[in-house]
Amino acid sequence: MKTIRYSQLVMPQDANVFGTLFGGKMVSWMDISASKAVHRFLKKSEADAALTRAIDAIEFKETVHVGDWVNFEANIISTGKSSIVIKIDAYKESKEIDKTLACTARFTFVSVKKDQFGTYKKINHNQTI
């Protein structure tokens, strides 16, 4: 599967008290990036969607400032029966810097299907990378 890309511009409302990107916002954007990769991965499966099961690892490497772009690259690195593990690298881009690794993470998602009662249940996705 190819790399899935997603970008966000850091706005003032995304900043912490130091004027840099709030870590929780970065985590949220990484979750969206991982979700996009999983959505495409599950297109040919019987699963209705996938949910975040765990954030297995996250490392903040560089400060990101208001006005910087954050460009995410998500890759599915392994799968189980219902699980999908995604590695996300977030690169900051500014007027002065083209591409610097700002954050890296690994998320685990689980595929789900809605049953006749409207409840989502874990399901085997029967997909491989």
Could you outline the blueprint of secondary structure elements for this entry?
Elements lengths: L3 E6 L13 H19 L7 E12 L8 E11 L3 E11 L6 E15 L5 E3 L7
Tally of domains: 1
Shape: elongated
Just name the CATH architecture: Roll
Provide mean pLDDT, rounded.
Answer: 96
Number of strands: 6
Series of H and E elements: EHEEEEE
Q: Supply the CATH superfamily name.
A: Hotdog Thioesterase
Distance between the termini: 6 Å
Strand content bin = 35-45%
* Low-pLDDT segments: none
Query: In CATH, what is the class?
Result: Alpha Beta
Q: Characterize the largest beta sheet: strand count, sense, and whether it forms a barrel.
A: 6 strands, antiparallel
Q: Count up the helices.
A: 1
CATH domain topology: Thiol Ester Dehydrase, Chain A
The class by helix and strand makeup works out as mainly beta
What's the alpha carbon Rg, rounded to whole Å? 16 Å
The helix content, as a percent range, equals 10-25%
